[in-house]
Amino acid sequence: MAKSASNRIITTPSSYAKEHYLYVQEVGTLQSLEPHISRRQNLNSYLFFIVLEGSGFVSYEDNRHALTVGDCVWLDCTRPYSHESSAKEPWSLMWVHFYGKEAVNFYDNFLKHSYSFLFHPQNMMAFTDILQHLYQIHSAKSSLMELYANRYLTDLITLCFMENILENQESSSIPEKLKQIHEYLEEHYAEKINLENLSSRFFISKFHLSREYKKIYGTTIGNDLTSKRISHAKSMLRFSNDSIENIALNCGFQDAGYFIKVFKKAENMTPLEYRKKW
Q1: What is the pLDDT of residue 1?
Q2: Pseudo-torsion of CA 65, 76, 70, 5, nearest 10°?
Q3: How many alpha carbons lie under 13 Å from residue 174 in its C-beta half-sphere?
Q4: pLDDT value for 226
Q5: For residue 268, what pLDDT is reported?
C-alpha cells in the first residue's frame, strides 16, 4: 500500500532557462498516509516546502527539527537531508524543487546573513499562493511558463529573506537603535562618519553595532553610507550644474579624485559620463 499520495509535475527546462532563469524541476503536493522517511543528497537542486497540515521532522546539518503547520523549510539538496511525517499526525505538504545558476548565489547570500533554513512565516498564504501559481503555470504549459516560473521563484526567495529579517528584528534587543542609526546616516551622509563616532553617539559597542547592522540591513555601515552618498551624488549630477568638486564635498567625499574613483567602481562610469548619459 502507498505510504503517501502526491500530485507532482516534473519538468525539463529549456537550455535558455538553464542559462538565464531560476527554473522548476518538480512542483506539487504530498499527503502522507503513514510515517515514512525521504532521504536524499548530492542533488543539484533546492527544495522549499511548507507544512499545510499535521507534523513531522526534518534532518539537516546534523540536526533533527520538529515541524508543524505553517513551518517553511529551504534546503540545499547537495547536502544530506531527510524529512519524515509523524505517525500521530501524518502531514500534508506543498513543495517545489528548483535550480538555476543564480540559485546558488541566493542561497549562499542567505546563509551569509545567518538566516535560518527553517522558519515560521507571519503570512503562510503568501508562500502557498506562490506554490499554487507554480503548479498552475506548469499544468497549463503556456509559452511564457519559464519566464513566469523565474518570477515566482524569485518572489519565493525574496519572501524567505523577508521573513528571516522580520524574525531577526523581533528577536533583536536593539532594533529601534539600529533604525535611528540608519536614519542618522541618511540625514548626515555629507558629514564625516565612522564606526567609532557612531558607537559613541548612540552608546553601543562598535563590534555589536557592526554585526547587528549587517544582520538587519544586509550590508556594512561603510557600504551603506557609500551607497547613500553615491545616490545623492547622482541626483546632483542630474538636477544641478554644480561642479564635480562641489558635488564630491557636498556628498561627504574627501576630494574629487576619491569621489570619481568610488563612483566609477559603483557605476562603471565616471560622474561626468553619468551626467551626460542621464
Answers
A1: 43
A2: -100
A3: 17
A4: 95
A5: 94
Per DSSP, the three-state class of 157 is helix
What structural domains does the chain harbor? 4-171 (2.60.120.280), 175-277 (1.10.10.60)
Low-confidence ranges of the chain (pLDDT < 70): 1-4, 167-174
Other beta carbons within 10 angstroms of residue 12's beta carbon come to: 8
Q: For the stretch 142-155, what's the b/e string if a residue is b when 16 or more beta carbons lie within 10 angstroms of its beta carbon?
A: eeebbebbbbbbbb
Q: Which amino acid, one-letter code, is at 111?
A: L
Instruction: Count the alpha carbons within 13 Å of 121 in the hemisphere toward its beta carbon.
Output: 23
Q: Three-state DSSP class for 81?
A: strand
Length of the chain (residues):
278
Measure CA of the first residue to CA of the last residue in the chain; give whole Å.
67
Q: Are residues 237 and 260 in contact, defined by beta-carbon separation less than 8 angstroms?
A: no
Distance, in Å, from the CA atom of 131 to the CA atom of 7, rounded to the nearest integer, reads 13
**Per-residue model confidence (pLDDT) at position 167:** 66
